[in-house]
Every structure is written in structure tokens, then in C-alpha cells.
Amino acid sequence: MNDDLQKRIQAALANPQNLGELAGADAVGTVGNADCGEMLRLWVKFKEQNGKRVIDRATFQSFGCETAIAVASLATELIRGKTAEEALALKTEELAGELGPLPPMKIHCAQLVEGALRSALEPAAVAKPAPAPIAPTGAPTLLDSFSQPKQGVKLTFLDDPKN
Ligand code: FES
């Protein structure tokens, strides 16, 4: 990874946006990558604005891949104010925003964020209610929620483009 990209990732990580579970979310998407073991969950809440249902807020949790966190931080800001259709129309490289082009070995990190967004926003997911809040008596970590799967949460493993 080049130094410039590393600096942009570190800048995003220094002040990550929208980290953590979102209470009262309207949709939740969870994806995993079997090769590197990373998982990412994205929560989305909508609001009515000018007669349209737009994304009010989106948050995420991940197991710790720096690139995935940086992309998720930027992407959750980028999709605010967009309809689900507009957010779904964004390409992987657009979600990565100011990080710029990612090296081939890191593209799957951004695709993980895109996959979580699709999992949350595709019509069937938007229509179903969000799962109950995770671990009401403990720290609501992603690991907790994967250890105790909740009804209504779908975990999707992304296809590996190498296969
Ligand atoms: Fe796999 Fe980043 S290394 S998601």
C-alpha cells in the first residue's frame, strides 16, 4: 500500500464517523469475507424529507480491518440524505470517497462495505423490521451479536472474485 493511501486511511481512522450500533434502525445488513475473516454490520435509519424517504443516519461495526473501517466511515457519511435507491447506485470506488483508488488487495475491504449496504438496503431488507437491540445488558459488540445470532439478521458471505 502506498504512503499516501496509508495516510488517508490513518486520517479517516483518527476520527471514525458513525461507529457503533444504531438504536431504532430501520434496516441492518451484515456481510463477511471468509478469506480474511472480516465481518461488517451496517445499520440504517430513514426519515421523510421533501416527500422522499431518505437515509437519516447509518452506522457500522467491524472486527477491525483498517481499510474497511475507513471506507465504512466515509460511506456512512456519503449516503446521508440519499434514498435507498440512490445509495444502492453508488459504486465501490465512490463509497471509498476521498481514500481514492485502492490497491487490488484492498478492494475487497470496500466491497465488504458495499455488500453490507446492499444487504441492508435491498428491497426485501428494507421491508423487514430491524432485529431487536443487541445485548441490552452488555456491550453491544459485533462479536456479541455474531455469537448470539438474532432472528431477522442475515449474514452474507461475499463472493471472492478470485474464485
Ligand atoms: Fe479483508 Fe480488509 S483485509 S476486509
Number of strands: 4
| Number of structural units classed as domains | 1
- CATH architecture grouping: Alpha-Beta Complex
What molecules are bound to this protein?
FE2/S2 (inorganic) cluster
Instruction: Report the end-to-end length measured between terminal Cα atoms.
Output: 23 Å
Say what the CATH topology is. Answer: Sufe protein. Chain: A
Strand order of the largest sheet: 3-2-1-4
Count of alpha/pi helices: 7
What percent of residues are in strands? 15-25%
Rg, Å, rounded: 15 Å
Poorly predicted sequence stretches spanning 5 or more consecutive residues: none
Chain-averaged pLDDT: 85
- What top-tier CATH class fits best? Alpha Beta
Helix fraction bin: 25-40%
Structural class: alpha+beta
Query: What is the approximate shape?
Result: globular
Specify the biggest β-sheet: 4 strands, mixed
What sequence of helices (H) and strands (E) makes up the elements?
HEEEHHHHHHE
Oligomer: single chain
